[in-house]
Amino acid sequence: QVQLVESGGGLVQAGGSLRLSCAASGRTFSRDAMGWFRQTIGKESEFVAAIQWSSGNTYYGDSVKGRFTISGDYAKNTMYLQMNSLKPEDTAVYLCASGFVVSDTPTTYIDWGQGTQVTVSS
Length: 122
Known about the structure:
The chain is mainly β.
């Protein structure tokens, strides 16, 4: 029903910046929430940030507050994650998700992208 494609990942040095994009297609009008999670092999998914379209409210995980900014362009069906002051601990596969309800829990989201790799070197 909704397809999500992430882009913008890559290799950066600690202290650098990246901007991730998530392009949505399909029945995007049926989703009120979009968010970012990150995964590392052997670990649980970690909530990064989310945005609720209807209110414009944004939410962040504690580990990225003050460094990352989530935004969206509703007309373009695209969500962005601006990542500044990157740390090696930010290294992960970043996944875009959408759903009906904004939350910090991955199981509440319905649609998922394939992910984009972010690697931060020290």
